[in-house]
Every structure is written in structure tokens, then in C-alpha cells.
Amino acid sequence: MTRKQLENVIEEGVPFELHLADGRSYAVPHQDYISLPPKNATVAVVYEDDGTVHLLPLLTMTGLTYNPKKRAASR
User: Does some domain include residue 55?
Assistant: First the structure.
């Protein structure tokens, strides 16, 4: 997974799920639940409602799942 692919999905404003090489998945229900540090960083930061913060290396991300129609339905 590239940083650009992740940026594109974040910009779409739809909920998505990140999948990692070890089989774990992280739900990103809204853009506020993820951040990408400056351009040269190689991690994404995913937040949970309970205050848990995950620093996830981009190199371990194998894909993501989302439904682009979710955004249109919420408008």
C-alpha cells in the first residue's frame, strides 16, 4: 500500500478498514481517526474512541476495504 493510495481514501471521506500483513485490521470510521505525518514519514497514526493510538508502518499495510457509496449516502 502506498501513502498516496491511503491519502486518496482519506480525502474521499468514507469509512474504511486498514489491513496489515499480520492479519490485523483497523477500522477508520471517519477522517478524524487517522493522520499521516509529514511527507517523509513511513507510518500512519490510527486513533480509537477509548484513547488508544496505533502507529502503523505503511510497509506492513496490505490493503484496505471501503465502500465509496457510503459518502454519497451520508450527504
Answer: yes
